[in-house]
Amino acid sequence: MPLQITSTISIPDEELELTAIRAQGAGGQNVNKVSSAIHLRFDIRASSLPDFYKQRLLALSDSRISKDGVVIIKAQQFRTQEKNREDALARLVKLIQEATAVQKKRRPTKPSKSAKKRRTDNKTRHGRTKALRGKIRDP
Question: Cα–Cα distance between 79 and 34 in angstroms, integer?
Fold first, then answer.
């Protein structure tokens, strides 16, 4: 069953390389016997994704994307292989969706006249308070 990215775009299973590896970290004897972690590899350049998606993914400066354009995700959060597989696929979908989300253009704003006046008044008041803290001199 292909991995659904959006309602119109999906990745065929043949383009995803999933391998089971041994998980790192604590876990007692179980961690040494069972290959429950999942290593997901996805070649962006060789994929059937539209060019727009490929360009946006390759332009990302993400540590999970190698110089060759291969996404490498290691999922070892859960104890079962199946949950780790689902986690790895979900993280790939999230990565692709975030890369293709178009950012809203930022419109620079200016502070209002009243905000500027409030700021200067506060500064003046604060300055006066500080001036009163000085030593009192005899004339």
Answer: 9
